[in-house]
């Protein structure tokens, strides 16, 4: 009886502890002087065996090379057959702060490798990392049975003076099982020879399976075994065939025995009946069932008699007919609903002036400026069926969605109105307005791209402006805008209004200029929006009430008496925006005294009390000279005069602001008095004048500020005026002393 235990370690055949109990070269020595006893590879008792499996043997090996306190070593390490160092499990490793480790596969081998480990102190080393900083690693070749290690310093090779503290650390080189090795700086702080796990592959003989099988000493004798050629050198190993388990080097009953797959739930994949056979198993079904009997196959299905089969056929046919009826009914309902939707869209299209829109577009087909008619399906796809994640803003008159049009992923803003009004008699004016506004091409005006007429209330499609409203940047991100940016925004807005008033074929009066209707792109370019081009509301008492509620703080004082908003109303509203840019105050604030809640009144009174610089936003006061701020304040004061005829035109305001920014930090009061205005009544800039003999007037209200989420309403009107007639007496409007 051959012993198979040494302490807690199991010694399987072909390994053995005594003569005759192992194959040649596989004898293991058991040293019983230890408690518990320890297993070793040879008589010298210096290579402990830690574990033995069917393909590898793990030993505890000493450090191959070391260099402590300037004393280096060269080490040779041999392993006789049947053992070979595992090239997949072992790594050649070196640790140290001034270490050059060279590794070779023996005197007659061409294989040479190594690695370098450097560091200045232990505090900079990361434990667990072996990337060259305190620790380095490299792979070993296949078939390695011996190796030589040379360990030296690197500082003398590269002529670099390391810190003297480095010399006290030990350098070491060794083979180690990479799965069990974790680097730690303690390896460099001791000159003791540690032992580390090393993996050895083992094989029988030097012959391949094909050659060895012809020999009488062939180890894989049992019929249930198979031979596998050794991949890490010469020789072979034996293993049990599929469906068998045991020791392939021993005869039965200890050899490869059949595994009963039916006895284990892990191997039994049969649904009902499992029959074990040598090396495998069979699945089957009992009488009255049919199928392959496997859980992952057709399983076992009970067979039916003639009556049951007939009943099953009848039920199947009945279910089939019922299914066809249901599908047919659904298809008919879907078709009826679809035709009804098509007719409804056609009805809305005609009611909303689709025929007129098509006629107008055909008359503008030679230009790309005219509006486009979008279908309802296009807008549904662009908004992901009006998904809530696409909502840009909500207001009293509707919701604005972010739309994306393929194939170039063009971004647009789509306004979906909430209310329906009986405005069929005015729909022609609405269509004309959309077409005309879509042809307003100005970089500081939000463009209307088109509309959808297949819905109860037309949907409007606008240019998408991503930067938010001026109101948001002034009041919700207080102090975020520099003075230069504020002045540029004012110039952009004034330029857009001047263009609408006097440089278009038909002058357009906005009539609801406010910071919520001024959008900013990513570069802080201002774009005027909210022209009220989607709803027709008559100018009556209710309309006036809506205007007052929607524009409180910006409204022209003359409107209360006349009920008419004009070009000079735009000038007044722009003056309030200028006051916002200067002070950072809201148009209406409960934090001010009752008579000064309105920003326009508060600003005018502050200027008249000579306390302008007390109300300016702190950042504005820091970034610009007083003279320029005073001049901009004078522009705002002129725009805020009660009487419309005393206010300048937007063209004059725009040119004055441009002149201020062009002079920069110069002393603008050093300018000659007659240079205070770029234009007077005798110097009309003809490039701004568009002559027209027609008259075109609409009045509407709509919440286009929804483009960026505002909930305030507004108004807009469109009139033909003589642009050159607005400049008379303009030289008096921007005098340094403002009269109110």
TrEMBL record:
<dbReference type="InterPro" id="IPR045274">
    <property type="entry name" value="WAK-like"/>
</dbReference>
<dbReference type="InterPro" id="IPR011009">
    <property type="entry name" value="Kinase-like_dom_sf"/>
</dbReference>
<dbReference type="GO" id="GO:0005886">
    <property type="term" value="C:plasma membrane"/>
</dbReference>
<dbReference type="Pfam" id="PF00069">
    <property type="entry name" value="Pkinase"/>
</dbReference>
<keyword id="KW-0418">Kinase</keyword>
<dbReference type="InterPro" id="IPR017441">
    <property type="entry name" value="Protein_kinase_ATP_BS"/>
</dbReference>
<keyword id="KW-0472">Membrane</keyword>
<dbReference type="GO" id="GO:0005524">
    <property type="term" value="F:ATP binding"/>
</dbReference>
<comment type="function">
    <text>Serine/threonine-protein kinase that may function as a signaling receptor of extracellular matrix component. Binding to pectin may have significance in the control of cell expansion, morphogenesis and development.</text>
</comment>
<dbReference type="Pfam" id="PF07645">
    <property type="entry name" value="EGF_CA"/>
</dbReference>
<keyword id="KW-0732">Signal</keyword>
<dbReference type="GO" id="GO:0004674">
    <property type="term" value="F:protein serine/threonine kinase activity"/>
</dbReference>
<keyword id="KW-1133">Transmembrane helix</keyword>
<keyword id="KW-0812">Transmembrane</keyword>
<dbReference type="GO" id="GO:0007166">
    <property type="term" value="P:cell surface receptor signaling pathway"/>
</dbReference>
<dbReference type="InterPro" id="IPR025287">
    <property type="entry name" value="WAK_GUB"/>
</dbReference>
<keyword id="KW-0067">ATP-binding</keyword>
<dbReference type="GO" id="GO:0005509">
    <property type="term" value="F:calcium ion binding"/>
</dbReference>
<keyword id="KW-0723">Serine/threonine-protein kinase</keyword>
<dbReference type="InterPro" id="IPR008271">
    <property type="entry name" value="Ser/Thr_kinase_AS"/>
</dbReference>
<keyword id="KW-0808">Transferase</keyword>
<feature type="transmembrane region" description="Helical">
    <location>
        <begin position="310"/>
        <end position="336"/>
    </location>
</feature>
<feature type="binding site">
    <location>
        <position position="416"/>
    </location>
    <ligand>
        <name>ATP</name>
    </ligand>
</feature>
<keyword id="KW-0677">Repeat</keyword>
<dbReference type="Pfam" id="PF13947">
    <property type="entry name" value="GUB_WAK_bind"/>
</dbReference>
<keyword id="KW-1015">Disulfide bond</keyword>
<keyword id="KW-0245">EGF-like domain</keyword>
<dbReference type="GO" id="GO:0030247">
    <property type="term" value="F:polysaccharide binding"/>
</dbReference>
<keyword id="KW-0547">Nucleotide-binding</keyword>
<dbReference type="InterPro" id="IPR001881">
    <property type="entry name" value="EGF-like_Ca-bd_dom"/>
</dbReference>
<feature type="domain" description="Protein kinase">
    <location>
        <begin position="386"/>
        <end position="657"/>
    </location>
</feature>
<keyword id="KW-0597">Phosphoprotein</keyword>
<keyword id="KW-0325">Glycoprotein</keyword>
<protein>
    <submittedName>
        <fullName>Wall-associated receptor kinase 2-like</fullName>
    </submittedName>
</protein>
<dbReference type="InterPro" id="IPR049883">
    <property type="entry name" value="NOTCH1_EGF-like"/>
</dbReference>
<dbReference type="InterPro" id="IPR000719">
    <property type="entry name" value="Prot_kinase_dom"/>
</dbReference>
<dbReference type="InterPro" id="IPR000742">
    <property type="entry name" value="EGF"/>
</dbReference>
């Amino acid at each position: 009886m051959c012993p198979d235990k040494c302490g807690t370690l199991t010694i399987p055949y072909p390994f053995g502890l005594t003569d005759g109990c192992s194959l040649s070269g596989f004898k293991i020595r058991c040293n019983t002087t230890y408690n518990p006893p320890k297993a070793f590879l040879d008589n010298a008792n210096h290579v402990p065996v830690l574990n033995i499996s069917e393909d590898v043997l793990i030993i505890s090996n000493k450090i191959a090379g070391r260099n402590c306190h300037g004393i280096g070593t060269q080490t040779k390490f041999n392993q006789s057959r049947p053992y070979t160092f595992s090239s997949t499990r072992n790594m050649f490793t070196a640790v140290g702060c001034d270490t050059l480790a060279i590794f070779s596969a023996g005197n007659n081998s061409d294989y040479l490798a190594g690695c370098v480990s450097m560091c200045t102190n232990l505090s900079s080393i990361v434990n667990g990392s072996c990337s060259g900083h305190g620790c380095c690693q490299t792979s070993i070749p296949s078939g390695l049975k011996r190796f030589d290690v040379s360990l030296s310093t690197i500082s003398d090779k590269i002529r670099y003076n390391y810190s003297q503290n480095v010399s006290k650390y030990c350098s070491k080189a060794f083979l180690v099982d990479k799965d069990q090795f974790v680097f730690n700086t303690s390896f460099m702080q001791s000159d003791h020879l540690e032992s580390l796990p090393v993996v050895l592959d083992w094989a029988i003989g030097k012959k391949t399976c094909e050659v060895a099988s012809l020999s009488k000493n062939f180890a894989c004798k049992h019929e249930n075994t198979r031979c596998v050629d050794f991949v890490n050198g010469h020789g072979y190993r034996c293993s049990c065939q599929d469906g068998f388990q045991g020791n392939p080097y021993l005869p039965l009953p200890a050899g490869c025995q059949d595994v009963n797959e039916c006895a284990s739930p892990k191997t039994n994949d049969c649904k009902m009946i499992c029959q074990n056979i040598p090396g495998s198993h069979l699945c089957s079904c009992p009488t009255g069932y049919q199928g392959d009997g496997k859980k992952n196959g057709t399983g076992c299905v009970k067979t039916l008699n003639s009556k049951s089969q007939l009943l099953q056929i009848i039920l199947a046919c009945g279910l089939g007919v019922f299914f066809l009826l249901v599908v047919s009914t659904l298809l008919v309902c879907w078709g009826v609903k679809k035709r009804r939707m098509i007719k409804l869209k056609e009805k809305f299209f005609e009611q909303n002036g689709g025929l007129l829109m098509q006629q107008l577009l055909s008359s503008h087909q030679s230009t790309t400026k005219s509006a486009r008619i979008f279908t309802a399906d296009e807008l549904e796809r662009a908004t992901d069926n009006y998904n809530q994640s696409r909502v840009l803003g909500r207001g009293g008159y509707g919701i604005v969605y972010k739309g994306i049009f393929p194939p170039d992923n063009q971004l647009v803003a789509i306004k979906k109105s909430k209310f329906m009004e009986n405005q069929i008699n005015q729909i022609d004016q609405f269509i004309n307005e959309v077409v005309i506004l879509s042809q307003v091409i100005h970089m500081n005006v939000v463009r209307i791209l088109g509309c959808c007429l297949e819905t109860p209330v037309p949907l409007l499609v606008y240019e998408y402006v991503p930067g938010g409203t001026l109101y948001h940047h002034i009041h919700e991100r207080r102090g975020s805008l520099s003075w230069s940016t504020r002045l540029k925004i004012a110039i952009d807005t004034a330029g857009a209004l001047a263009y609408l008033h006097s440089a278009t074929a038909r002058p357009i009066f906005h009539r609801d200029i406010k910071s919520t209707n001024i959008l900013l792109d990513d570069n802080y370019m201002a774009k005027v929006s909210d022209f009220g081009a989607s709803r027709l509301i008559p100018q009556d008492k209710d309309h006036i009430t809506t205007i007052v509620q929607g524009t409180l703080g910006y409204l022209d004082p003359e409107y209360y008496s006349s009920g008419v908003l004009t070009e000079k109303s735009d000038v007044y509203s722009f003056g309030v925006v200028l006051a916002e840019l200067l002070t950072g105050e809201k148009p209406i604030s409960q934090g001010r005294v009752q008579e000064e809640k309105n920003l326009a009144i508060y600003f005018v009174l502050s200027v008249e009390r000579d306390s302008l610089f007390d109300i300016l936003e702190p950042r504005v006061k820091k970034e610009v000279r007083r003279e320029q701020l005073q001049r901009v304040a004078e522009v705002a004061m002129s725009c805020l005069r009660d009487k419309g005829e005393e206010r300048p035109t937007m063209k004059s305001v725009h040119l004055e602001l441009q002149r201020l920014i062009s002079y920069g930090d110069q002393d603008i009061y050093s300018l000659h008095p007659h240079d205070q205005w770029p234009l007077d009544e005798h110097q009309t800039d003809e490039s701004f004048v568009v002559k027209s003999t027609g008259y075109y007037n609409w009045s509407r209200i709509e919440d286009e500020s929804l483009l960026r989420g505002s909930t305030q309403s507004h108004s807009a009107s469109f009139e033909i005026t003589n642009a050159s007639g607005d400049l008379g007496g303009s030289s008096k409007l921007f005098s340094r002393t403002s009269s109110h």
